[in-house]
Amino acid sequence: MRISTKIDYALRAMAELAASDDDRPVKADSIAGEQDIPLKFLLAILGELRRGRLVRSQRGQAGGYTLARDADEITLADVMRAVEGPLANVHDDSLREIEYPGPAAGLVDVWKAVRTSLRSVLETTTVADLAAGRLPKRIKTLAAEYEESERQRLP
């Protein structure tokens, strides 16, 4: 799976909104400045998040963006799906409909495992977790395993 710049920016923008001290709307240029995101790109992403019912927008002098639900009710998976669709696609087919012949037959189970692994991380971590810097223990453990495997790869 490739984490696109769009997903990265969307998650960073949602964390910024979740970290907002009060319920007042946050201006897009403020989010863009705090997270070093190009404003034009951010506005397009915020539009997708609004259509995905994850943020609300308010026009006017006091306008800006707020989360549409509590940050602890919005998972990272929700954000990713809002901006790019399903978490893991296998050429846009349902895994229930895919069959491979012969020695490649087990690949369907690999795709199922990949999808389940992604969900186990992205559907259990909320925007509130991200913004507060309190990631679930399982996520921290997986990140530590990654760091260890990277250290072992280096000469």
Structure annotation, total helices = 7
The beta-strand count equals 2
CATH class: Mainly Alpha
By helix and strand content, what is the structural category? mainly alpha
Largest sheet entry: 2 strands, antiparallel
Report on this model:
The protein is mostly helical. It has a two-stranded antiparallel ribbon. A hairpin with a 5-residue loop joins strand 1 and strand 2. The protein has one domain: Arc Repressor Mutant, subunit A. The protein is globular, with a radius of gyration of 18 Å. The two termini are 26 Å apart. Helix 1 packs across helix 2, helix 1 crosses helix 3 and helix 1 packs across helix 4. The protein has 7 helices and 2 strands; from the N terminus they run αααββαααα. The mean pLDDT is 89.
